[in-house]
Structure formats: C-alpha cells, structure tokens
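As a point of orientation, let us examine one representative protein, giving the amino acid sequence and backbone structure tokens.
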Amino acid sequence: MALVRRARRINRILAETYPDAHCELDFTNAFQLLVATILSAQTTDKRVNLVTPALFAKYPTAADLAAANPEDVESIIQSTGFFRAKTKSIMGMAQALVERYSGEVPGKLKDLVTLPGVGRKTANVVLGNAFGVPGITVDTHFQRLSRRFGWTTETDPVKIEHEVGALIEKREWTDMSQRLIWHGRRRCHSRRPACGACPVAPLCPSFGEGPTDEKTASKLVRSAAEALDTQ
C-alpha cells in the first residue's frame, strides 16, 4: 500500500479508536495553555494539572506573572521539576508578551517561537489547541510512532514535522498529533509496545516489536488515568 494511503488509513483507525483524543493539559485560554505546555517538559500532564490551578489563580494574566516574585512562582511549580529554569522561562515569556504583544499570546508560529521557553512543539500545541490553527506536535511519542509507522526515518523534530505533514491532510494535523500521543501513552510504549492489542497492527511495519499475543499485549494497555501519569 502506498505510504500516503497507509498513513491516512492509520490516522482514520486511530480517530475511531480515540474519538475524544485531546490535549490533556487543563487550560481555559491561550496564555494558560502556553504556560502549562512550558511546564510539561520532563514531567507528566497530571503533575502540571495539579500545580496550574494555584498558579493561574495567583497570576491570571501575563502582566501578573511578569511582575511576580520568582521565589513565589518557584514554590508553586516546584513539583514539576527543573522549577528554577521553568520559572525563568514562564516569567520571561510573560514579560515578552507584555512588552511586545500587549500581554496577549500571538497566533502565529513565527511570533510564538521568539518567546523565551517556546520552541516549535510548544508553539504548535498552542496554535492547534487554542487558536484552531493546524499544527503538528512532535513530542517523544510522536517521534517514536511516526518512525514505527514508517512515516519517516528522520530523528530531527522539524524534519519529522515536515515529512509527516506531507502525508496527512493539513486539517487533520492537530487531531492526528493528539491521536499519536494518546496511542503512544496507552499502547505503543517505547518499551514493550502492546502489538497484539493494537488496532493498526495490520498496517504497521514495526508489528512484533512488542508481544503479539493478544492476552499478553492486553495487559500492557494503560487506562486513561495511567496514561495521564505518563510523560
């Protein structure tokens, strides 16, 4: 089967498997999603969701966060790890929003990636989930699955983004990204993927990297709660 046709068929099967796939960070606006995504580096969405309610209650706007006492911010986000670096990033980002964008999060990739702590992955999360602009989120799960599916052989996230973007319809980019992330967290693990319990197994060139016996593989499938606690 041709690569484009197979890639789109895999995407359709994942859409049927995870019809409610979505960004699992809690947010109500673009600013909150931007902060939460920066905090999600090297930790779980569950951990981020535990600290952001207090953070957003105390600093609801970019101006509030930019003017915060760094030590107070550190104390709130400490459990997410790398809290001093993350405090510097989110306060620097907030300061840049105040100085250059009147405190508002810009809706363009070229502007977002100029903000402290914001790379293409974070920018695409915000564009896709807060602005409705199609974007591909190349996180660790997306990288692993896109290679296992044979969609790319690249290791550079930007090259992966462009290669996969050429296979999948642009309107599908954001949802497709969430489906791969959900599938990676629930079944297609880095170690011992649940091949025997995978809905796209007949289309996957990497079938067999994990147990192919259905009974054994089913035990490896993580629940929604377990997946949320996975990086």
In short: The longest helix spans residues 83-101. The chain has a mean pLDDT of 96.
